[in-house]
Specification:
CATH topology of the largest domain: Rossmann fold
Largest sheet: 8 strands, mixed
Shape: elongated
Number of domains: 2
CATH architecture of the largest domain: 3-Layer(aba) Sandwich
CATH superfamily of the largest domain: P-loop containing nucleotide triphosphate hydrolases
CATH class of the largest domain: Alpha Beta
Strand order of the largest sheet: 3-2-4-1-5-6-7-8
Helix content: 40-55%
Number of helices: 12
Number of strands: 8
Strand content: 5-15%
Distance between the termini: 12 Å
Order of helices and strands: HHHHHEHEHEHEHEHEHEEH
Structural class: alpha/beta
Length: 310
């Protein structure tokens, strides 16, 4: 339990910038209104949009809140705060089978543009899975960037896992082919693939990912497939736009949201999950290996409102 409390503490401090803006706005509304009227809802809507929760998700939250207020015949403004927290949590629930891939032989592919923390996330996931006693193989399929191969090699050494890599500028699909065969030969529990992310050239990226997917389907059909898009939380609505673009070129099963510490745009986690109906599965709030953790809607929203953990 201590570990979870530690992470909740990090989450609270990591979301400080978001919370400072967000909670100040929320407080001024709940302290400034004595009744629940149209002005109240309008002001609340504005605060949510300013917190990068986005227009579409904000509308859903407000609509949900209105229904609850009406159903429960609520008159007191303060009671609305708890309902607001519940409405936000409802937008972010992760299904029970979201992490099934962890309990089966699996191939996890990470995609995302350069600079979002993709290679680091591959390394952190590898380290965590190795510490759970899993046999892990890494594929350095971001052959576009020499630094990515070097960085991943460093992570593989640190985590004590095997890495399969090729030459800079080589064919990523052939790296994945070799990595799949290595994973099968070693009876690995999980193969984690780092890929290049060049959204400005979407057609090439699409072809590259299709080729990689075909190889995994053909060579490793029994493996559970997981495709995670890595997004930089500091970019706010840009992260949502990237997620939508990657969703056009890949069958995304989950999202890793990095760099949530040091941004006032943490509300983007709510927008992404709600608008895309793709779960945020991991969040990153620091540089250490255990600073990438499974996403928990209750902890996240409680930290946003700085409620104490239950």
């Amino acid at each position: 339990m201590k570990e979870k409390k530690g992470f909740f503490g990090k989450l609270i401090s990591g979301l400080t910038k978001t919370r400072d803006t967000f909670v100040a706005g929320i407080d001024s509304i709940f302290n400034g209104f004595s009744e629940i009227d149209e002005d109240f809802y309008e002001e609340l809507e504005e605060v949510l949009i300013m917190a990068d929760i986005g227009v579409s998700t904000t509308e859903k939250i407000i609509e949900n809140l209105r229904e609850k207020v009406k159903e429960q015949k609520i008159k007191e403004v303060e009671v609305c705060r708890k309902l607001l927290i519940d409405s936000i949590k409802e937008q972010m629930r992760v299904s029970e089978d979201a992490y099934d891939f962890e309990n089966q032989q699996s191939v996890i592919m990470l995609i995302g543009v350069n600079g979002v923390g993709k290679t680091t996330s591959v390394g952190k996931l590898a380290g965590q899975m190795k510490s759970q006693g899993k046999r892990v193989v890494l594929a350095a399929a971001d052959t576009f960037r020499a630094a990515a191969i070097e960085q991943l090699t460093e992570w593989s050494n640190r985590a004590g896992v095997e890495i399969i890599s090729g030459q800079e500028g080589g064919d990523p699909a052939s790296v994945v082919f070799d990595a799949v065969n290595a994973a099968k030969a070693r009876n690995a529990d999980v193969l984690i693939c780092d890929t290049a992310g060049r959204l400005h050239n979407k057609k090439n990226l699409m072809e590259e990912l299709k080729k990689i997917n075909r190889i995994i389907d053909r060579e490793f059909p029994q493996a559970k497939r997981e495709t995670l898009v890595v997004l930089d939380g500091t970019t706010g609505q840009n992260a949502l736009a990237q997620a939508k673009q990657f969703n056009e070129v890949a069958d995304i099963t989950g999202i890793i949201l990095t760099k949530l510490d040091g941004t006032a745009k943490g509300g983007i986690a709510i927008a992404i999950q709600s608008e895309m109906n793709i779960p945020v599965k991991y969040i990153g709030i620091g540089e250490h290996i255990d600073d990438l953790q499974k996403f928990d809607a209750n902890s996240f929203v409680d930290a946003l409102f700085e409620k104490k953990a239950d």
